[in-house]
Amino acid sequence: MLTIPVGCLRTTPAMPFDIYIQPGGRGAPVLYREKDLPMDAAVRERLWSHGVQNALIPASAEYTYGAHLEGHLPAILQDPEMSPPAKTAVVYRSACALMMEVMQSPRAGQLCGRTQELVNHAVGFFLTHDETLSCLADVLSFDYYTYTHSVNVFAFSICLAKAAGYKDPEVLREFGQGCLLHDAGKSRISPDIINAKTKLSEAQWAVMQRHPVHSFDILVEAGEGRDLALDAARSHHEKLDGSGYPDGLVASELSPFVRMITIADIFDALTTRRPYKDAMNRQAALRIMYSEMRRKLDMDLFQVFVDMLGEEPPRSELRLKG
Ligand SMILES: [Fe+2]
Ligand SMILES: [Fe+2]
Description:
- With about 325 residues, the chain is mainly alpha-helical.
- About 50% of the residues lie in helices and about 5% in strands.
- The protein has helices spanning about 40-50, 60-70, 75, 85-105, 110-130, 130-140, 145-165, 170-180, 190-195, 200-210, 210-220, 225-235, 255-270, 280-290, 300-310; strands at about 1-5, 20, 30-35, 55.
- The chain is globular.
């Protein structure tokens, strides 16, 4: 079962999942309201008046719930009854559900309008809440799936951009769309390659390295023409020393935004669990990024990232600013 705040049960003529409550906060969950019944503020008020802050829904309804949240995102983010951590979880869950849809859709581009809408709300929320990152730490998935990774990278990238001083909402919305969809191109690659548990053959690796181009194409086909969005998608595996892909760009060709998503992308890949590897803790991931990738990554932005995470940086090794 999934525990959700009562404040997330928004008004709808037919709630798309069963709702359970746990009287007294423990014991077996009791069915409170069947699926397809209407939900309104009076039902929420009644639950609150009985001291019920959280409800339970079947784990199988996780993505139906995400879609429900997406449809009510503006109202939830403006609801004074909802705490910032609860709102952060709502942004995260709704984005994960939407990205799961994108990754499974043969026409991912048709969903770009919805991803942009969600990005706009999320960026507005991140910009006005400084505690976003610590709230996110409680909800980030540590299991690697392309859809959770997409959302993690989006969240880290926007927070990093904000920490680096980029606070223009328009700029962050544009960048955010590229970040959220940076790996959408993987939906065009055979699952045998995406889900391979062993090292890819040379031919498979060549196919895999085309995914940023597919992400770029998905955006272009959806009518995206803004450079920040397109560059984030196409160039998130490029490196300052020219060793990246798909275009082998060098430092002078990589904008600060591309440099930021690259840091976020590598950090999330290292700190999440795959079938063939454990998740690294944040310290170990930062140490590897510093010691093994210092010619590939922008070390000034890397330091902003380390400071932003509030992690104890490998100080003795880190170059100090100034
Ligand atoms: Fe990628
Ligand atoms: Fe990625």
